[in-house]
Structures are given as C-alpha cells and as structure tokens.
C-alpha cells in the first residue's frame, strides 16, 4: 500500500507486507520490527518509513494502538522529508484509524481529511479508496452512518476495476457495519420495514466481504467479517446460522490478535445469551471484560462490562447487573478521561516534534545546508559572495512566481516538493553557476568570472528550463515559472549594494508580468522619468 522504496530491502519489505495481508499479522509485525533495525543501520530513509508504516498497520490489526500511533507519526515525518506523497497518505490513513480506535474521533477525522488530500494528488485510486475508508471509519464511530455509507460505496467503485480483494473485503465489511447501525436507527424511529431491509442488505454485503477475504487468504479481514456476520444473524434471530459463522472463525488458520479475540468472545457471549445458554454466556463475558482491561481500544472496556451486565440481568441477578451498569458508567467516564489524556499526549507529541524541527533548523543553519532542498543556505551564500569581493561576478535573485497560490491550492506538501524540484533543476543546469536557497521561494544564483551578457544568457536558460519543465506529476495542472533579477558586481561594490540592484530588477520582472529575466535598469529609468 505504500511507496516501494528503491532499496536493497524492497523485496523483504514487500514479502513482509504480503505476510500481513494474508492474516499472519503477528509474524509480520515481528519481521517488520527486525527489518526496521536493518534499514535504520543502512540509513535508508524511505525503507525506514515503509517499515514504520507496516508496523503501524500490524499494530492496528493486533490491538496495539499505542505503539501503532508512535510508528505512524514517525512514518509520516519520514515520508514527508523524502517527498513521498503516496507513502505519507498511507501512513496518515492508518494514523487516522488508530486515533479513532483510541477514542480521538475528531483528530482521526481531521487526519483522514489530510490523507484524502494527499491521496488525491496521486494517480493511485486504491490509495484514495483507503484514505476515504479512514474518513468513513471516523464517521461510523460518531454515528454519522448516513455520511459514511456513500464514502464506502465510493471506495468500492474506486477498486472495482483492480485486483484488490483484500481492500474490497475491508470496505464491504465496513459498509455492512454502517448499514446495521442505520437499521438500528430506523427501528428506533419505528420504521421496522426499513430496518429489516437494511439488515438484509448488510448481511449480503458482509457475505461478499467473507468471500473476498477467503479468496485471497486475508484471515484478519475474514475473522472480522465472520464475527460481524454471526452478530447480524443473532440480531435477526437466526442462531443456528450464527453458530456456523463462529465455527468458521475458529477454523481460520493463523495467530489471533487481542483485538480479534475480544471481538470473538463477546460475539459468542451475545449468541449464547440469545440462545438462553446464560451460564456459558456469563463465563465468556467475564473473560471478555478481563481481556479488554489490557486493551487500548476505546469501546472494548466499556462495552464488555455492559454486555456482562446484560447477561446478569437476563439471569435475574439484578443486584450484580446494577453494580455492573454502575461500573459501565464509571468505565465510560474513565474512557472520556482517557480520551482527554490521550489528546493532551498528542498535543505534547506535536509540540515535541515542533521543538525538534526548530532544533534541526538551528543545526541546518550552522551546517550551512538547507535541509529541504539540499542547496547551500543563506549562511553559505554570504560566505561565497564575500569570497568574491573585488573580483568579476554577477548575482541573480530568482523567485518562483505565484508560489503562495501553489501552497493554497495544492497544499504545503506540494509546495515543498516544488522547492525540491526547483533545487534539482538549478543543480542540474551547471554552466558554472552556483545556486543557493535564501529562504522561502527565493534563490540566489552566483556567476563567478562572468560579465553581465554571458551571465544573462545563462540566467535566461534557467528561466526557460523552469517554464518548460513538467510539474504536473506533483499536482494536476500545476505549472511553475520563475522571475529573475540579475546584476553585475561593480568595483568596490558591497554585498548589500549588488543585492539591492538584483532585487530591484527582480521586482521589475514581476511588474512586467513574471516569467522573465531583467538584467538592465534602462527600462526602469524610462519609467521613472515618465
């Protein structure tokens, strides 16, 4: 699902991912952790990002949300540093889902929006579907199923023409879940016919999810859909059929994660409750409560206590049931407190990230290299121009046209990619020219040992290279041009003087309509006289 890294570890990473996609999540998690150590030693940034993304996904499957969140955040940062929009979208979608799992629905929804914006910049429809699914999950958790269902239907349309059975299973499972929630809402309004129609539709879609997961060997998706199917049939009174779904669940090969185990146990307890086997239901419900106590999932702790209370109520143990309902209320309050605590931790994590970025900026300045573009920075420029004092040289100030509009229309991530691409163009042109990043979208071009006319010829070639370059792979319809002001160093001229002349001519290039070079003050002087 992520960018395939140009790395010696690419085949091992792909094999690890296939392992996870066929339900061997515990093995895949161990393998991805091992691979992370190797790519870290090799200083393989994209490989590290891919490993961290995989670890986050396997943690989600296995119910290890805390570790998953840490890895997803680190993966996003690495993908961004390496300009990999596809990988960043993937990590953001997984991060969104993990946030929702921990009860941070608002933050999860916002992150899913980010994932969708990133995915929309790529041609990969499967990635867009996965990001859209993350947004639908956030909506499902806050009971906005009428908004989630169209998104999930769109996910299925996006992957319809591709061989992606595991993804189809995931989206069908979530669609069925939302349809059941809508059925419950319809029945609470007294519209029993609509509720029955939605439940029947959900069962059909969930069965399609089972077929898709079984066909591709995705045992994690298969177990989820089988448990959900059993629950749907229990709620429609078809206990015998629900038992066959749980029997199939037990026959699925592979290690079972804590998240899956809890789901299976409380579904089994619900079946036994409806079947009148209350003693067995009680034992399973108590086991589910004990397991959920060690799980970070926002719903499991409270819901398992509630279901245990319902079993005691069915047994006539009203005092125990009342006590458990009180525990449910306390657990719900604690869950809200946990959400507040986790939100505070998330804010602190983001603050630490910003501090680290600020520290990195200091180191970058000290090192004399711009971290984003790899070009020499303003510190190195000042030293270079000082070294040229008293010699023959020209200075160009290049500014990307309408760069703010790029950030506003395509996102700052695309803006960063444009700056990196601009640096690659400047480095690739050569011609005795030295390029520096002064800051923002502004670059300096130094032409040692050149007079104004040959320097102008090179600067014009630079401008044309920007104008001719294909930028559309960074964003649909994106076009980037540059304006340049060029000045020649006069005898005894200070740095501030030559920069002022180049800046004035850059301003003239902008005023004349941009995408042009100005290397003379003649036109300006005429305008001033006029």
Automatic annotation (TrEMBL):
Transmembrane segments: none annotated. Gene3D superfamilies: 3.30.70.270, Tetratricopeptide repeat domain (1.25.40.10). It comes from the Bacteria. GO terms for biological process: cell adhesion involved in single-species biofilm formation; negative regulation of bacterial-type flagellum-dependent cell motility. PROSITE patterns: GGDEF (PS50887). Residues 391-522 form the GGDEF domain. Its EC number is 2.7.7.65. SUPFAM superfamilies: Nucleotide cyclase, TPR-like. InterPro entries: Diguanylate_Cyclase, GGDEF_dom, Nucleotide_cyclase, Rev_trsase/Diguanyl_cyclase, TPR-like_helical_dom_sf. It catalyses: 2 GTP = 3',3'-c-di-GMP + 2 diphosphate. Pfam families: GGDEF, TPR_12. This is diguanylate cyclase.
């Amino acid at each position: 699902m992520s960018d395939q890294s140009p790395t010696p570890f690419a085949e091992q990473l792909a094999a690890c991912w296939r392992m996870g996609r066929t339900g061997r999540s515990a093995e895949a998690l161990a393998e991805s952790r091992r691979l992370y150590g190797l790519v870290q030693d090799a200083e393989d940034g994209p490989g590290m990002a891919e490993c961290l993304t995989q670890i986050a996904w396997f943690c989600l499957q296995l119910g290890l949300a805390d570790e998953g969140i840490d890895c997803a955040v680190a993966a996003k940062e690495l993908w961004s540093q390496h300009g990999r929009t596809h990988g960043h979208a993937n990590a953001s979608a997984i991060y969104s889902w993990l946030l929702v799992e921990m009860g941070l629905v608002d933050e999860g929804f916002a992150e899913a929006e980010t994932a969708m914006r990133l995915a929309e910049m790529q041609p990969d429809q499967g990635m867009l579907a996965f990001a859209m699914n993350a947004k639908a999950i956030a909506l499902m958790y806050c009971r906005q199923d009428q908004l989630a269902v169209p998104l999930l239907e769109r996910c299925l349309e996006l992957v319809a023409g591709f061989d992606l059975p595991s993804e189809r299973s995931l989206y069908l499972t979530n669609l069925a879940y939302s349809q059941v929630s809508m059925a419950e809402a319809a029945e609470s309004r007294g519209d029993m016919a609509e509720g029955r129609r939605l439940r029947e539709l959900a069962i059909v879609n969930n069965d399609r999810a089972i077929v898709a997961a079984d066909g591709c060997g995705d045992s994690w998706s298969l177990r989820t859909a089988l448990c959900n199917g059993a629950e749907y049939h229990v709620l429609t009174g078809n206990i015998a059929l629900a038992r066959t779904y749980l029997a199939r669940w037990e026959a699925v090969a592979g290690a079972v994660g804590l998240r899956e185990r809890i789901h299976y146990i409380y579904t089994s307890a619900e079946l036994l409750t409806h079947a009148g086997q209350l003693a067995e239901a009680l034992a399973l419900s108590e086991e589910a409560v004990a397991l959920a106590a060690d799980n970070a999932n926002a719903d499991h702790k409270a819901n398992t206590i509630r279901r245990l209370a319902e079993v005691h109520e069915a047994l006539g143990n009203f005092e125990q049931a009342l006590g458990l309902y009180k525990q449910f209320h306390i657990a719900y309050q604690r869950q809200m407190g946990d959400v507040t605590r986790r939100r505070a931790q998330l804010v602190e994590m983001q603050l630490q990230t910003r501090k680290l970025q600020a520290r990195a900026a200091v180191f970058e300045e000290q090192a004399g290299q711009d971290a984003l573009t790899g070009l020499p920075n303003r510190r190195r420029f000042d030293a270079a121009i000082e070294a040229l004092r008293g010699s023959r040289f020209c200075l160009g100030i290049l500014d990307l046209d309408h760069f703010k509009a790029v950030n506003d229309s395509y996102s700052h991530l695309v803006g960063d990619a444009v700056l990196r691409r601009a640096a690659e163009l400047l480095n690739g042109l050569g011609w005795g020219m030295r390029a520096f990043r002064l800051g923002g979208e502004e670059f300096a071009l130094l032409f040692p040992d050149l007079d104004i006319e040959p320097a102008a010829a090179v600067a014009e070639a630079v401008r044309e290279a920007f104008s001719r370059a294909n930028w559309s792979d960074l964003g649909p319809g994106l076009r980037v041009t540059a304006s340049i002001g060029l000045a020649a160093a006069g005898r005894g001229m200070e740095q501030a003087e030559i920069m002022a002349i180049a800046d004035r001519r850059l301003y003239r290039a902008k005023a004349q309509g941009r995408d042009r070079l100005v290397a003379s003050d003649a036109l300006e002087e005429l305008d001033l006289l006029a």
